[in-house]
Structure formats: C-alpha cells, structure tokens
Write a structure and sequence with these properties.
2 domains; Lipid-A_deacylase-rel; Porin; two-stranded antiparallel ribbon; 197 residues; mainly beta; globular
Length: 197
Amino acid sequence: MIWLKNSRAFKSVRQVKYIIWTSLTIFLLTHSKLVMAVDGLMLSYGHGMNDALIQNQNISGASHQSIGLFWGSEYHFDHEWFGYSELEFEAYYSQIKLEQTRQIIAFRPILNFWGNKNQRRNWYWQFGVGISYFDDKQFMPVTLSTKGQFATMFGIGIPFNQQQNRLTLRYNHYSNAYLKKPNPGLDTISLDWHVSF
C-alpha cells in the first residue's frame, strides 16, 4: 500500500482529482449569481521567503504565481485609528514551485485602507485573512501538518487609471494557526496586479 501511495500512477490520479475539483469550483463560481458582482481579474507573481519572519524554513528559491477574481462589496468602515476602508473579496488559484509544485485554491476577504473617505490617499494598504487548500502537505523543505491553511496577507499598493488598475506588493503567509502541529508556515512575497472589468 505504501508503494502504491508513492507511485506515479497514484500521484497522477491525485492530480487529476485536484484538477477536476478546481475546475468544478471555477465552473460553479462563474455560473452563479456571484459572478455578476465580479469586478476584475487578479494576476500575481512572486517568490518564497527565508525564515526571517514567521516560517521556520527557507524557500527563497521558490516561485509563486496566482490567477483569480476579485469583487467589491457595499461594506465600508471608518475607524478612528485606521481611517476609511473598503471590503472586497478574492478567490484565486496558485502554484508554488521549488523541487515540487504545490497547487493552492483560496478565498479571502480583504480590507483596503485609503486614509480619509472624503480625501483618499493616492496609495493604500491592505490586510486579509481567508482559507486555502493545498493539494499536498509536502513542500521541501517545509512539511505542513494539514492541507487546509489560513491565508493571511499584508500589502501596500497604488491605483492607476481612476482605480481601474492596482499594483500591490504583498507579504503572504499560509499556516493552520496551530490547530495542528507542526505548523511551520509558508511565506511568499508577491507583486499583484488587479485589473477591473
């Protein structure tokens, strides 16, 4: 049984199942009422980080690419300390490549902070926490204890063309918040481009 689980045929079947589930998820998203509210496309490219921040291994040689959809909401907040912020949502598919390739699907709400509602800055910072699912727990040298991970993000960016385009530098952190140990975490840094439809 161990041989079967490590065989190429087993891995191929697992990849096919993952592709089917991902395709089904994308199909349901694009054929639901939710797509009527989609505001645009998100493209991202970045790389892994060393153990300077949260993760306890070095994956600085890894590449990280994402493609996804984002949509706004009617919810906005005005906080005394943080200022004016708007809530939006992202659903995306990612690949992280080093010795292996890990595939990730994720969904997360994001708050974009613009300063003052009546006099918005020409830049913003953002924060988001969502959920993600990895196709496998092994990503050398990192071994995750669960395939389900929280997807946390901090970013700073600038809008172009009356916010039709946005460019954001992001720190991305995946972890299970110690719901199960070990929890090494996975850190990447990326440059994200949001283009509105």
